[in-house]
Amino acid sequence: MLTQRVAEVFDEFDGRAGAARIAQVLTDRGLKTNKQAVRSAMRKQGLRAARLPLSREELTERVIAIFHTHDGRFGAERVAVELARAEVAVSEATVAKILRENGLRAKCYRGPEKPSPLRGPVRSTAHPLQRVGAFVLMALAGVDDLDRDPESLTQAEFDAAISVMRADVAATADLPNTKAPGSFWLAASYLLWPNSPMNNSGRAKAAPAQRRERIEAWRTYPTGRIGVPCSLCGSDACGWYGKADIPLGAAIHHRNTTPPGHEAKPCAQAV
Question: With 0-12 CB in 10 A as exposed, 13-18 as middle and 19+ as buried, what is 215?
């Protein structure tokens, strides 16, 4: 049925309609389809849209005109459909290339912007461990207001939470091994932060004071920036963090998404 309808519309436009235009016409007429299915049906029948004799300069002008006519809301696919409606058969890839060459990028509609309070040092992202950690920071900072969210944390509250965390891990410096009383964080560190200053192979040979010094240096929040966005929240990253810093960072997903030339991820805050 689709093959026959495609052929009918193709003939209706005297062979000047491409897959995108035919798909739009069929959809408007009540036959739900897409350009991929239409393109496949055209290939089976040896149908190929005739191209209008447009120069590259003329095509570029048409693409830019359609882009601005729709206030920059149309990307390559929608612009290609509009061109097809005007009986100009051009691929989406060609339109995308023209848009890139002219520095044009479609706007992404995100809905009405909601007013929000001034943002503090914490961002909530889609990463499940990061989101859990953001709420843990509130608890460590002593915030028990159920109407607040992690992004409302002030810098002072954030610093207080970091101090508590740093004190907890630094306390493991005095423990001989994971079987000693109060060694929960030391035992957990082998899973969460393998080969970190808390549990590396040289731990047994170092004195407690040396261990504490290394741990506190490891958990001291950096003040600089490295010039790349955080892999989680997109804000300016302050360092490269790997499996010794990010909980469960040794997972396959983490290893396969590190930037080329680096063995870690850029993060804004790793505490």
Answer: buried
